[in-house]
Amino acid sequence: MTSEVRAVPLDTAACGLVDTHCHLDAAEFDLDRGAVVAAAMRGGVTAFVVPAVSVSGFALTQSMQSLYPACRYALGIHPLYVGVAVDEDLDRLDQALSDGGQIAVGEIGLDFFVPDADRARQTAFFRAQLKLARRYDLPVILHGRQALDAVLKCLREIPVAGGIAHAFNGSRQQADEFIRLGFVLGFGGAMTWTRATRIRALATSLPAHALVLETDAPDIPPEFVGRGRNMPEYLPRIAAVLAELRGVGCDEVAAVTTANACRVLPGLFSA
Q1: What homologous superfamily does CATH list for 17-264?
Q2: By CB distance 3.0 to 4.6 Å, which of 6, 106, 113, 217 could disulfide with 230?
């Protein structure tokens, strides 16, 4: 079932919070997707970035923008889906990008957390997708789990038009290198867990111009949700945690993180 969602013009002068990483196309939202979007918008979320994970899901990912005008989408092949992808999927991605409509290439990157990950194949797909991002002059939305140095190596060899390092969980040195390369860093539910001392220290100390907010819904739920389904309506509470950590007001966090999202994703409010 899909409930009606009022279309709100995306106006940078009046925008609230931006969820820069939200898998609204995931099966976990099939029964109440419209209600989930409506609840988030009532709470002040005025834009959602929905990144694809596989070529087979492109059509559904793209449909989020037509179904919910506050959504924008990115197209890419997630590293954990490379194992089921075929080489021709890169040609399909190329064709989809040439058709236009997306604001970024993503979710792409490397994930060496899985013990049997085919690192060589992941790297080949990642590099090919970075080259496509260069061809179409698009920013990228990065996934990097236990592989940030390898991600950075590829970015130095194949520079792109910046983007977002999603769910950042690296060192300060790695953060500074992403920033140098034109990226901002995504902070979401993981930052709200009191035991996540390194992430919280980074959220506190990194320059404000390097931060954006995200939920990664339905994944990475915040501490106040526990093991439940993560949802974009939690973004204001996540923003409040960031404001508390940095000792500033929630309005300032909303203004700065939204401006950062607009800067690295130029198509966010004009697509």
Answers
A1: Metal-dependent hydrolases (3.20.20.140)
A2: 217
